[in-house]
Fold this protein.
Amino acid sequence: MVTMKDVAQRAGVSIATVSFLLNDTKPVTAATRARIEQAMLDLGYRRNMVARALASRRTHIIAMAYPALEHRFGMSTSEFFTSAAEAARKDDYHLVLWPVGNDGVELRELLGQGLVDGVVLMEVQLDDPRIDVLQQAGTPFALIGRTTELEGLSHVDIDFDTTVEDAVRHLREHGHHELVLISGDLDDPRFHDYGPWVRTEEAYRRVVASYDLPIRIIPCSDTTQAGKAAAARVLTEYPEATAILVLNEYAALGVVAGLKHTGHDIPRDFSVLSLLTVPETAAMADPELTMMRTPGPELGQLGTQALLRQLEGDDPLPPQLVPAKLCPGATVAGPRAPRSKGGAGRRGARKARS
Amino acid sequence: MVTMKDVAQRAGVSIATVSFLLNDTKPVTAATRARIEQAMLDLGYRRNMVARALASRRTHIIAMAYPALEHRFGMSTSEFFTSAAEAARKDDYHLVLWPVGNDGVELRELLGQGLVDGVVLMEVQLDDPRIDVLQQAGTPFALIGRTTELEGLSHVDIDFDTTVEDAVRHLREHGHHELVLISGDLDDPRFHDYGPWVRTEEAYRRVVASYDLPIRIIPCSDTTQAGKAAAARVLTEYPEATAILVLNEYAALGVVAGLKHTGHDIPRDFSVLSLLTVPETAAMADPELTMMRTPGPELGQLGTQALLRQLEGDDPLPPQLVPAKLCPGATVAGPRAPRSKGGAGRRGARKARS
DNA sequence: ATTGTGCGGTAAACCGCTTAACTGAGGCGT
DNA sequence: ACGCCTCAGTTAAGCGGTTTACCGCACAAT
């Protein structure tokens, strides 16, 4: 392994000078700079991050702590991660994905080792035990998501209010009055406290109330299966509904499938609007989902930036809320003609198979 | 920060003794062991991994190098990663996901820093430049996937031959004679050399030939969109086909959607068998996909083990090939009754919309 | 001529841990 | 009683950088 010493020797300077040049922490004359750079080139020098980390107490590694067990790592998360990693690299940091449990014990383990300078926390719960762990350890961190209590916590998050407002407005503009939200399943202990679900549901209640519409919510977990079941519940419990908002993208796939399966046409019979969705998932539905596109790339980047600001001692980035933007697909249209009367029997419903 | 010195002091021993105890590298009497352990407890000592890494030249970190740009990080990959991470943790290693480019320059960067003890390489190409990089750097590595030339490379991979054999047999047992493979798009430069696609196609040619069936292959990239298009091509180019094997799981979703969209019933009119698929994706189709389940958990674990064996100097794990196992869904049934004659016109085809 | 003083550069003390070489106190065979 | 081995512990030399204190020098101000 070629070390700084080797470089210094070959360039005829002291190793401190090499270090100063490398870190740009003290000026170096053009002549010596050239000699050193040549020496580094000749020798193929690469600075050892471990030694640097030990001496400077900065590893230049930041971790994205992801609860791999509780939350599946799907395409949305993948977006967060890659954009965050890119942002980190631009500032000479490494972003690595670290699978940790939601309870914080593995996180504490990780922090104790002194391996990471900071943490980007994902899938934040409203009252997240991991935050205590981070604060106790004194490790800088940024949240993608928000807790209830966010005094002085640097965070970025989806602007759920705007997102839901825009979504509902879109449906209203298409003439819909009968809406249903297929929300998250807050009874599931894993998600009881899960920010996006709680906040979306809250926003929905608020927005719908402001339109003087009835609040109709069906809980549903984050799978296609569950989405199908939820679709069935819509048909029996709210047959008058003409438009369905779906919080989870995988559930949205199930909702579309479920409705089609029972002989309904999308968007003729029902409009479906998927709330937090990436294009890849939207494309998996037939017809392609109209969606509020999760601002994954923006948030990943902003989250990393917020953390790096702290690490570099710059003035902190103010908390930012980014709404999901409407991306028209083919699952939203005007409401079907109001039924004459009674049951859900409609043209097409005859073909129901299950 | 509480260091080993503090612990040693409090326990009244030298810091070397503490180190020996911690690493179990030299015997320590029960008495001193107890004193040291108590001291560590009292002080809340956590060993500093960075210092350890510098001194021992082992970071106990292994990287899973993932070409995040070229390959989307989907559910399958997520499976590989989490199972590999689990296996690593069991052996006191950390597995982190490192996004690197496919060309090897970022990988070289990473290795130069001395941050990782070894690398698990994913999405291996038949002739992968990253392997040269790893060998030059002298970094131990294991492949999930295979190159063409695999002299002495420790690797694990999918057993494509068995997988395809089992898949074709399954369809044959259901009475199908007219098969099509919707394969990968090897014309795409990003995938020209991509092992799974090349190997699956090869295996298919072989297997189908052994059954004396015609070789019918349609290239298709890894998206739902492309799957829909491929379905259309099947209808026009091979209208006699009754069963379709699909290499990529997202394409499989598109194939099902595309066929249904043009008024065909699955599995009545066409059987669809998705070759390398995870249950989550299979569930997104309606009806649920019959699939060959990607052995992600097994391979992630085996890959990590193979690498750790090298790192620990144990005798190497022999290369292992694991087939994908058949998981019946609802997209395979017997072939439709042979048409009387002519075109693809069938009951239901009237409903075609696009 | 004297005194700052700004600047490119050096020497050396760490950073927290590992590990090879060494020490010293029993235990044992003869 | 002597040497010899074993074994728990200790000493100290790194690992490859960073960083503080210091040094000599040229140039400007006094």
